[in-house]
């Protein structure tokens, strides 16, 4: 057997790595990060590094606050740490970190599909929600309009920092594609070629020895300097949650106001506004949705950083972010049309009322002129 074929057959031993699970929640309209820092012992997210020549002005607009929440029970021999990342636009990301180096025995790449499947089946969502509820109770004074949404968005990242035998990205991708695809799909069975190719379709490298594979519910990061990539993926998971949240809120409001728009406007006094509350709510909803979308989009500036921009773009495509954005934009247009319909009906009702008053006044004037003759 040749040395090349033996290398391809043997599974590389993981010297350093970790598994990260993100769970994103919406907890309110806004969070005052400065106030959070006075309530709890937290620290801001580290600025972007310049390993890949990142311009130093491309950073977080408002750096999220990171808070350690303790440890989680050992899972498969791995020690787990829990962190909370609090964003100013009213979102929290609960993350679980397991160090692969803490395993009782050395792990190989072939061990990860089984680990990924077990972690995915571990059902951490309920545990993460309890963590958020406890956190909200502690930072409630810093939250504007606190309310925990029922929605949650999860995402998993498998970080491979180093192998015992150094390996280039092409060697890893070409020699172990089946295993990498299984990790991304949380599956231990052999995948079809089409499914494998689809899972590995978003592959990004900067140096010869780094690789990012992005799928819809998980990513693999082969890089010793992975923190920036991890932060971008966490932020995108939060952005997806906020997109789902806005879409659900708009759906709910549209159903309510569609019924209202089908009702005929009653006669109203010249200075009264029959749909005053609904019109104000529609206007406020449009403003709040637009402001939230702007704050989420502007949370992290990546223009000029080609590597992280490629990671962000690939993940956005896998998360169907353009589709969500188009849906939200379309529903905001519907909200705008409903607003216009209600205001037009108010104007029409007031105009008709004024016309009726004028007719009544003219009739009274004619009657009085006839009576005085």
Describe the SSE topology.
Blueprint: H1 3-9, E1 14-26, E2 30-31, H2 33-39, E3 43-44, E4 65-75, E5 78-87, E6 91-99, H3 112-120, H4 125-139, E7 143-144, E8 153-163, H5 169-175, H6 177-185, H7 193-199, E9 203-204, E10 211-214, E11 218-222, H8 227-261, H9 276-297, H10 306-318, H11 321-371
Parallel strand pairs: 8-11
Antiparallel strand pairs: 1-6, 1-8, 2-7, 3-4, 4-5, 5-6, 9-10, 10-11
Structural class: alpha+beta
Taking all Cα atoms into account, the compactness measure Rg is 28 Å
Biggest sheet details:
9 strands, mixed
Can you tell me the number of structural domains?
2
Number of strands: 11
Low-confidence segments: 1-8, 265-269
Coarse morphology: elongated
Q: N-to-C terminal Cα separation, in Å?
A: 126 Å
Residues in helices, as a percent range: 40-55%
String of helices and strands: HEEHEEEEHHEEHHHEEEHHHH
Arithmetic mean of pLDDT: 81
Strand order of the largest sheet: 3-4-5-6-1-8-11-10-9
Q: What percentage of the residues does DSSP assign to strands (E)?
A: 15-25%
The total of helices stands at 11
Describe it.
The chain has two domains: 3-235, no CATH class; 242-371, no CATH class. Residues 1-8 and 265-269 have low confidence and may be disordered. It is an alpha+beta fold. The chain has helices at residues 3-9, 33-39, 112-120, 125-139, 169-175, 177-185, 193-199, 227-261, 276-297, 306-318, 321-371; strands at residues 14-26, 30-31, 43-44, 65-75, 78-87, 91-99, 143-144, 153-163, 203-204, 211-214, 218-222. The longest helix has 51 residues, at 321-371. The protein has a nine-stranded mixed β-sheet, with helices on both faces. It has a two-stranded antiparallel sheet with strand order 2-7. It is 49% helix and 19% strand. The chain has eleven helices and eleven strands. A hairpin with a 3-residue loop joins strand 10 (211-214) and strand 11 (218-222).
């Amino acid at each position: 057997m040749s040395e090349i074929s033996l290398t391809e057959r043997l599974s590389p031993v993981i010297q350093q790595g970790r598994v990260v699970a993100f769970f994103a929640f919406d907890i309110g309209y806004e969070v005052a990060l400065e106030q959070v820092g006075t309530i709890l012992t937290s620290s801001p997210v580290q600025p972007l590094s310049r390993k890949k020549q990142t311009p130093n002005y491309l950073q977080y607009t408002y750096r999220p606050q990171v808070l350690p929440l303790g440890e989680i029970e050992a899972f498969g021999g791995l020690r787990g740490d829990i962190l909370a990342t609090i964003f100013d636009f009213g979102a929290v990301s609960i993350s679980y970190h397991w160090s692969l180096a803490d395993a009782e025995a050395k792990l190989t790449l072939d061990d990860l599909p089984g680990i990924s499947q077990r972690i995915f089946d571990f059902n951490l969502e309920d545990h993460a929600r309890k963590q958020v509820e406890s956190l909200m109770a502690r930072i409630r004074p810093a939250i504007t309009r606190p309310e925990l949404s029922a929605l949650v968005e999860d995402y998993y990242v498998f970080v491979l920092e180093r192998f015992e035998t150094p390996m280039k990205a092409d060697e890893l991708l070409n020699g172990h594609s089946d295993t990498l695809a299984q990790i991304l799909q949380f599956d231990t069975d052999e995948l079809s070629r089409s499914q494998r190719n689809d899972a590995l379709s978003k592959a990004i490298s900067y140096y010869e020895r780094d690789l990012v594979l992005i799928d819809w519910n998980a990513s693999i990061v082969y890089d010793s300097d992975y923190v920036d990539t991890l932060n971008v993926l966490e932020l995108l998971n939060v952005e997806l949650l906020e997109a789902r949240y806005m879409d659900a809120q708009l759906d709910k409001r549209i159903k309510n106001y569609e019924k209202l728009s089908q009702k005929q406007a009653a006669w109203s006094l010249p200075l009264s506004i029959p749909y005053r509350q609904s019109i104000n709510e529609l206007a406020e909803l449009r403003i709040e949705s637009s402001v939230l979308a702007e704050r989420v989009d502007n949370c992290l500036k990546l223009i000029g950083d080609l590597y992280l921009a490629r990671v962000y773009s690939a993940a956005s495509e896998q998360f169907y972010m353009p589709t969500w954005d188009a849906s939200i934009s379309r529903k905001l247009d519907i909200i705008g049309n409903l607003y216009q319909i209600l205001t037009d009906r108010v104007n029409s009702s007031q105009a008709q009322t004024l016309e009726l008053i004028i007719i009544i006044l003219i009739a009274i004037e004619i009657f009085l002129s006839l009576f005085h003759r």
